[in-house]
Inverse folding.
């Protein structure tokens, strides 16, 4: 019960056996405590899956292509689900020019307005 609570606590989030031992020994101690903790952690499926040696190695870092001109490469996303204010716009349209800046436009989430808003807002920016 103590081991399960210490290991699955929302505050510790599956600590390894060393950290779990150091945390528990401040307030608890019993004969064979270190062995019990080590056995408990070794049987935890989540801990075994997230161990570094079980992860696929990441590839080499790739450099990001730097555009030559403003607005040559842009990315867009929507932040939606915002409370509906008096202006009836309940989302933020995020437009990022990868060379220069980011723009934030308040919009309605109705998809039919997006092409019109895109043309109107790109002319302003």
């Amino acid at each position: 019960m103590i081991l399960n609570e210490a290991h699955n606590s929302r505050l510790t989030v599956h600590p390894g056996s060393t950290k779990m031992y150091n945390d528990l020994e401040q307030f608890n101690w019993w004969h064979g405590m270190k062995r019990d903790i080590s056995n408990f952690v070794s049987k935890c499926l989540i801990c075994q899956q997230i161990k570094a040696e079980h992860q696929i190695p990441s590839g080499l870092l790739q450099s990001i292509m730097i555009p030559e001109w403003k607005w040559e490469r842009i990315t867009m996303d929507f932040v939606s689900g915002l409370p509906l204010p008096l202006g009836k716009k309940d989302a933020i349209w995020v437009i990022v020019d990868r060379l220069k800046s980011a723009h934030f436009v308040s919009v309605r989430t109705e998809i039919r307005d997006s092409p019109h808003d895109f043309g109107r807002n790109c002319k302003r920016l």
The chain has two domains: 2-54, 74-124. The mean pLDDT is 79. The first strand starts at residue 74 and ends at 79.
